[in-house]
Amino acid sequence: MVKENPVNGLKQLAKKLTASSQNLLAAFLDDDFKAKQKHQEILKQIELAYQQQSFVVLQLTNGIEPNPTFETTYGYIKPHPNNPDLIILNEEQDGGIRMIQTKSIVKISFLNKKKSNLSEDQVVEEPAIRKIK
Length: 133
Prior knowledge:
Elements: H1 6-29, H2 31-51, E1 55-61, E2 70-79, E3 86-91, E4 97-101, E5 105-111
Antiparallel strand pairs: 1-2, 1-5, 2-3, 3-4
């Protein structure tokens, strides 16, 4: 058994500490890190909404202008087959189809479709509420 030299252990610890502090500082100074993180979260929500075939409400921005304008649109989405940075929106307003860049999405909200296991013949009775004196 070879015993590890304590000096080597301290050097390794110092290297790891230096690397982690540099990464932390770079992430703190890098504004794009938060934007990338938010974009990844929006992409996850888009994928979830598509898998559940949910009705989606999107808040969009026009982008880089000093005073950006916002737009709200809604419908059903699916990913673009050739470009992962685009989604296809089937709009409920006018029945049109629209391609939207995922970077222009500020906020996404969606409603899940609830699948009922009950047939139309079955009726669900709510339990009676009893008052306690």
